[in-house]
Model the fold of this input.
Amino acid sequence: MKTGYIKIFIGILLLCLLSAPVMAASLNEDRFDDLGQSAALLAMDKLNFKYGDSDVVVLTNAGRAVINGQTTQKAVSGITKISGLQNGDSTLYQINRADSKPLWFYFYNKDTGKGLYLEPDTAFYAMSESDAKELSSSDAFSKVALVTGDIDIMLADTEDGNATQKALGGNAFSLLSLSNAWAHGAPYDLMYAASLHNHFCPGVSSGYIILKYIEEEIPLTDGTSYVVISAPTWCKEDVYPTIWDMTPGKGGVATSDVFTSEDEEILTEKYGTRPAGIFVLWNSKEKTGTGIAVGFQFDSAEWTGPSWGEKVSKTVDMVENLDHPESYVSVMKKFTVDEKMLANLKNPMNNPYAVCGMM
Ligand SMILES: [Zn+2]
Done:
């Protein structure tokens, strides 16, 4: 009798051991290709668009999310295969999220103002290959939400807007800001910076406007490069690693440890604009440079609509106003920089605005 139980127990144990690797192996990258294809099929149906439609963008954290140890970039291939949406056409962007976050897809049709938000059913990951193949496109997802994604329509009908906010949950601001900025003509390099930043906001837009202003004001020539001393810091910081390749690992952007909000207030009062940083065009051979302290003025008009609308709406305004940096940016001071001053500006124990004689 006892031996019988032991035999059954060993049998079950063996079965578990044998079936475990099979289940783990079933979640390979092809599963995510299938998932991307299903998402695209569903979106083309629900949002009524054809292959390669330039009025549609898809945002996803596929390629960033890692599910059960498996990277998810194949979902991007699946989407492109079926829908024709792709990064090279500015109709597909991979949005930065921590690898531990669940996978999602958001398709947005700017022609109709409708969006489709999809979250895969986690049961789909555990299924056998044959079971997964038999599913209809919608069965792979636990969440399929058709929403109004156009910020103007959402603001005109707040109830509709609230419903979108609810359906997109924690991803709402990120997805609505990115898709609306895209629909209003955000250029590829700014979309790229915002994709890394995780969302599109007035802050990241201000960084882009400042950087383009600097490129005009003190253009790079042979043998020169930019040095950025950023104080105060805000969302704008994320454009420097993406567009100027100033990544933290390579030294990146200098900041001040001693610059305070009181210093910021003094400068704002004195110069009539908010300080945004010091930019130096540096010639490393001649050991000389030109410095500019830049001010940035955000739109300070009072917001009276629903709170979820403010940042998205103000971002869209900034995107539409990219050709007019002078509405936001001004030169607080322009000065010559030598080697000693450059070292002092970059020293985190200094207030850089004091170094260049502004306070
Ligand atoms: Zn931001």
